[in-house]
Every structure is written in C-alpha cells, then in structure tokens.
Amino acid sequence: QIQLVESGGGLVQAGASLKPSCVASGGAVSSYAMCWFRQAPGRKREFVAAVSFTGGNAEYGSSVKGRFAISRYVAKNTVYLEMNSLTPEDKAVYYCALAVIVATDIDYYDYWGQGNQVTDSS
Question: For 38-90, how does the pLDDT look when each residue is reduced to its tens digit (9 = 90+)?
C-alpha cells in the first residue's frame, strides 16, 4: 500500500523560506512523478509543482514560479519543496501526491498525503 507522509510545514514570516518534504513508501513509488498541491480555506486545491520520477523534469504553477523549487531524492523516494519569499497568499495546507506522469491536472493524481499546514505569523 502506497503511503505519503509530509513534514516540515509550520509558522513562517512574510519573506521567509521553508522546505517541507514528503516521503513515499510501499509499491513502485520510484516510478511515479511526485508533486505538491495546496489548498487554502474556501479555495480549490491548487497545483504547486511536480517532478518526474527521474527528477529531471519539473513544472510549476504560475503563482509560485521563480519562488519555489521542487527536487527529488530518488534513492529515498523523497520530494522537497523549497519555498522562498513567502507571502500571506502562500498560507495553505500543502499536499504531496503521486501520478504516473508530471501533470498539473489534479485528476492525474492517485495517491495523496494527509497534508501539512503552512501558515504565517501575522
């Protein structure tokens, strides 16, 4: 059974940085693309970033491009999301997910973590 466990969220100030991670286990997780979505209160779940199973190809949502960077430690089935220049609009629950391809459409993602809260100190 595939499981995803996020960690590294928390309370940050505007302009700060944070680097949450997600570890996948069970099944052939190394063959999946890994991604991050986020959901703020009252809003739809939004694509943030995705990385291919090799770690060589990545895509970003328009609201985070240039500020966030996704990376993958293939040997440990771990994906990271380096978040820089955080703003109040980045406050959300961040979810890790797996899909067979790198995609921005939520319908491609079959496996989800429980979510990890990122909030600001204001």
Answer: 999 999 999 999 999 998 999 999 999 999 999 999 899 999 999 999 999 99
> Which residues make Cβ contacts (< 8 Å) with residue 44, sequence separation at least 6?
none
CB–CB of 68/116 below 8 Å?
no
Q: Token match 């600001």: residue?
A: 120
Find the radius of gyration of the CA atoms of the chain: 13
Residue type present at position 75: A
Cα–Cα separations (whole angstroms), residue 14 to 90, 105, 114: 9, 29, 25
For 81, residues 6+ apart whose C-beta sits below 8 A from its C-beta are 19, 20, 21, 36, 48, 49, 68, 69, 70, 94
Question: Quick check: 5 and 105 in contact, CB under 8 A?
Answer: no
Rounded distance between C-alpha atoms, residue 55 and residue 15, angstroms: 27
